[in-house]
Amino acid sequence: MASIPPPGSPGPEIGRLQSSFLTSPYHSHPSKWDALWKEDYTPWDRGGPSLALADLITSHPNLFPTPTETARRKALVPGCGRGYDAALLSVLGYDVIGLDYSNIAVEEARKNEENMKEEEVWKEIQGKDQVREKGSVTWEQGDFFDDGWLERTGTGKGQFDLIFDYTFFCALPPEARPKWAKRMADLLNPEYGRLLCLEWPLGKDPSTGGPPWGLSAEVYLAHLGRPGEEVRYGEDGKLVEEETNVAGSEGGLKCLARVKPARTHKPGYDAEGKVTDFISVWGHSLA
After folding, report:
1. pLDDT of 102-127, one tens digit each?
2. For 17, 199, 205, 219, which has the most beta carbons within 10 A of its beta carbon?
């Protein structure tokens, strides 16, 4: 399986991925991702669930409403790929929708679900957190920005208690970021919903293009703080300075926590073996 080199060392895999989208208008991107799945070219695939995600939820329970048998919690993983993180969230007690535009990815996720039981992090969680009742997983093919998959699953906007974003936001060009932020805000439970963003790649120069597009903490804050609003970028791909001082809107999400995980996927380490990833937690309020 192809692997993604760490930030700062693009390599041939990233070059081919970027070239697939270089001159294509954004509306054609979903079909291009599907084409890469059909070619079995998936260099973004991590080969397993996010340790950073598992550690955050189990070690910071104060940030999340705990799923119980009588109070099920709904989670969403957009761009779920082979479904590692959707399956992981089910072990943590959530009823999860794993969503991907590519039908090939969804089929891979369905086949991979049983194999996930052999993952060490799966056994680790089951061993130390016996109080959680395992949740269900529903695999859905669909466009994240379209309501079709919501209707098929009987889920309305504002009903997700947890949404996990990793290698999804960074796959969208800057022009699509306001739409992404608005959709996240609309889907999240307004009372205690939590959006978890595993921020990556933080070490990549945004002027080199994407996907994946180089990101920063300020980019997440600018868009999630003002969902749907235009955010200005300079020719270097970075936010213009004025944007970093703009206050959030009334319907914006607030950053409740930003944590450097103790462990993460290999691309989240630098050459010295230090973690470069951050994982941020967002909500409509501090409730």
Report:
1. 999 999 999 998 887 777 777 777 66
2. 219
- Assess if residue 41 is contained within a domain: no
- Domain holding 107: CATH number? 3.40.50.150
202, 278 Cβ separation under 8 angstroms? yes
Judge whether 11 lies within some domain: no
> Using CA atoms, how far apart are residues 175 and 213, in angstroms rounded to an integer?
12
pLDDT digits (tens, 9 = 90+) for 151-191: 999 999 999 999 999 999 999 999 999 999 999 999 999 98
* Domain carrying residue 154: 46-283
Q: Does pTM top 0.85 for this prediction?
A: yes
For residue 194, give the nearest of 70, 80, 88, 61 by alpha carbon: 61
Residue 113 burial (CB count, 10 A): 18
* Token pair 């804050």 in the structure block, residue: 221
**Residue 212, preceding bond cis, omega within 30 degrees?**
yes
CA atoms of 212 and 201, how far apart (whole Å): 7
Residue 269: half-sphere exposure toward Cβ, Cα within 13 Å: 10
Q: Identify whether 213 is part of a domain.
A: yes
Q: How many Å apart are CA 118 and CA 11, to the nearest integer? A: 31
Strand order in the sheet with 73-78: 137-141, 94-100, 73-78, 162-165, 194-199, 278-283, 254-259
Each residue's pLDDT tens digit, 14-35: 578 998 898 899 999 999 999 9
Of 111, 110, 100, which is closest to residue 34 (Cα–Cα)? 100
Q: How many domains does the chain have?
A: 1
